[in-house]
């Protein structure tokens, strides 16, 4: 007998659920924090910044949710573990996470230093790995299902034009494969792991990279995607809510490329 159809809208609701967001003090991470709050979820933010952006202070009142901000270095075991424990104590339990803490440099391969490359791997790979591990352990302890969304990148699909980001490429390739591996390993426990791969997104990090490039090279961010524009945070948040919610109950080990089409082709101007 076929499964009866259900209303779609309630499947996206996060009301009463609790989420950990790394790198949620600004940028993509904060955009997702705000989206989770809009859908009724409570959030613990773990971020290296001293304070989140100002809009954070309005979320609890605006959306009727609970939030906490914990200054955290996800590449440091003691810092990450301590903040995670505080987050669980505040939230009571967890239902999932969005692991967006990450850093990038645009620099010729032969000029990248040991310290720079190691820092990228420590934050982007180890930070993602162990934040996910902590969430998975908590879900297993609770004996509850959950959803974890990691942040890969278009650079895990191919090399961006006019960009010199080999260390970052390597880190995001690792995250994409980690998503696939954990999707398989954790699925029997009801823990779903998926990822998004943003393309060129208008953010603070992107603007820093733009400033280092010639106007011609910088313009590629706007002209190369088949949609002929750079992306924005709103282009990403819907996919993350889908992956965190019950709407994606049968989605595991998947990566959603949100690139304006750049991961499959580019416009030659």
UniProtKB/TrEMBL annotation:
The keyword Heme does not apply. It comes from the Eukaryota. Coiled coil: none annotated. Pfam families: adh_short_C2 (PF13561). Keywords: NADP, Oxidoreductase. Gene3D superfamilies: NAD(P)-binding Rossmann-like Domain. GO terms for molecular function: oxidoreductase activity, acting on NAD(P)H, oxygen as acceptor; oxidoreductase activity, acting on the CH-OH group of donors, NAD or NADP as acceptor. Signal peptide: none annotated. Belongs to the short-chain dehydrogenases/reductases (SDR) family. This is NAD(P)-binding protein. It comes from Aspergillus bertholletiae.
């Amino acid at each position: 007998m076929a499964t009866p159809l259900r209303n779609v809208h309630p499947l996206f609701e996060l009301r009463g659920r609790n989420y950990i967001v790394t790198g949620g003090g600004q940028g993509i991470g904060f955009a997702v924090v705000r989206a989770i709050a809009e859908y009724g979820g409570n959030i613990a933010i773990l971020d290296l910044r001293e304070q989140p952006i100002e809009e954070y202070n309005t979320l609890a009142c605006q959306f009727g949710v609970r939030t906490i901000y914990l200054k955290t270095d996800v590449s440091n075991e003691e810092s990450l573990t301590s903040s995670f424990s505080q987050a669980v104590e505040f939230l009571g339990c967890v239902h999932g996470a969005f692991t967006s803490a990450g850093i990038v440099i645009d620099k010729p391969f032969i000029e990248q230093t040991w310290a720079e490359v190691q820092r990228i791997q420590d934050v982007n790979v180890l930070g993602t790995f162990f934040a996910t591990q902590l969430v998975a352990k908590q879900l297993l302890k609770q004996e509850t299902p959950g959803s974890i969304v990691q942040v890969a990148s278009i650079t895990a699909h191919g090399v961006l034009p006019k960009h010199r980001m080999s260390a970052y490429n390597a880190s995001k390739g690792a995250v994409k494969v980690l998503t696939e591996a954990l999707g398989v390993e954790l699925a029997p426990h009801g823990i779903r792991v998926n990822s998004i791969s943003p393309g060129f997104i208008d953010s603070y990090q992107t603007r820093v990279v733009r400033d280092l490039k010639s106007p011609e090279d910088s313009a590629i961010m706007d002209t190369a995607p088949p949609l002929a524009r750079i992306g924005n945070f709103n282009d990403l948040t819907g996919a993350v809510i889908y992956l965190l919610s019950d709407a994606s109950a049968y989605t595991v080990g998947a990566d959603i490329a949100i690139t304006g089409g750049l991961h499959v082709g580019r416009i030659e101007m």
